[in-house]
Amino acid sequence: MPGSGRSLAARPASGARTFRLGKPGRGASRPPAGARAMRIAILGTRGIPASYGGFETFAEELSVRLARRGHDVTVYCRSPHPEPVWRGVRLRYIPPLRHKYFETVAHTFLSTLDLLRHPPEVALYCNGANAVFTPLARRAGARVALNVDGLERKRKKWNALARFWYHVSEGLATFCPDVIVTDAHEIQRYYLENYGAKSVFIPYGAETGRTPTRAALDALGLEPERYFLYVTRFEPENNPLMVRRAFERVETELRLVLVGDAPYAQDYIRRVKDTRDARILFPGAIYGQGYRELQSHCYAYIHATEVGGTHPALIEAMGRGALVLYLRTPENEEVAGGAGLPFHDEDSLAARLREALTMPEPERRRLGEAAMRRVEERYSWEAVTDAYERLFEQMLAGSAHVG
Question: pLDDT tier at 116 (50, 70, 90 boundaries)?
């Protein structure tokens, strides 16, 4: 476990811009004093209500809070919703082209064409692969920010053409939008050192506090604090297979709950589920209250994702006060900050699982509480919304072009 809880990844790159978040002090029901309502569009995700991954949760949490503060917010969606406005946010449905490699960029292109008919004042694009479309929104009069996420070209699910496109998009992201947004200092440093491009650091957010209800546990036949939890898309770089194999090597009566799915990884998912260990449970994807309940009552949370910036599931588990076992990458260490147990492969994960099982209860509680405090201080959704709101105001004032 890191002694200082700090690494180079925890400090912003030289010359890069960071919005210091701190604890939220602004009311979430109105714009800040002296500010005016803005017309904002969010593109590049699957849409809201969130039912897939981190970007979708980000779009939901940010858009709902911005709308609550009085802004006119539209989120472009791939799935229809019964109502055109949800929790104060306008939902714009654009039918997607279902394809593993082209769905994201095709939908964002079609969404951009729709956006050109009634341009917003500010457009927030998600996913670096969509950088090529941002000049269209700029030419229509919108100021454009691009949240590039992590280094997507490193994901094993992509073929050579997709990896090439993501690599090209990294370069496009440095000049196509008005502003690059990075959600981890490590990604901020990457763009500065490899492209000489400055970016604005705004992290992902999370709630804090445990959820007392246990309906999801009852439905799955689980007991509180009698299971390890892992939640992510079942894709190779997220290592669900490694987690399953490491757990199978540990003698314990506790269970392992592997929550997740993926639309284009059925062969890999079959390998992950190929086990005779009756302690292991595969409930599929779980969202909303059930997801929060599972995180709140687990014995410990396992995070094994290799690629990306700030991983939502990691800070969400920390926000619930869970003991976290995390794969040691610069991005994950930046988030965990020593409030957890790092591992680097299957052998060390198995060892960490055994360590967690023999850890005195006060120590496990102490680490969980430290993780929760870290999220409160660094990753509050209200503080994240504050930072985006300030960024958009500066963009409209012409003072935030950092690309």
Answer: very high
What CATH number labels 8-205+380-396? Answer: 3.40.50.2000
**Is the pLDDT at 346 greater than 90, yes or no?**
yes
145 - beta bridge partners? Answer: 124, 179
Closest CA to 318 of 388, 367, 364: 367
- DSSP lists the bridge partners of residue 342 as 326
Where do the domains of the chain lie? 8-205+380-396, 215-378
The predicted structure's pLDDT at residue 9: 29
Does residue 10 carry a pLDDT above 80? no
Cα gap 218→185, rounded to integer Å: 40
Q: Write the DSSP assignment of 319-388 as a string of letters.
A: HTT--EEEE--HHHHHHHTTSSEEE-SHHHHHHHHHHHHHS-HHHHHHHHHHHHHHHHHH-BHHHHHHHH
Q: Do 27 and 364 touch, CB atoms closer than 8 A? A: no
CATH superfamily of 215-378: Glycogen Phosphorylase B; (3.40.50.2000)
224 against 399, higher pLDDT: 224
Q: What is the pLDDT of residue 12?
A: 39
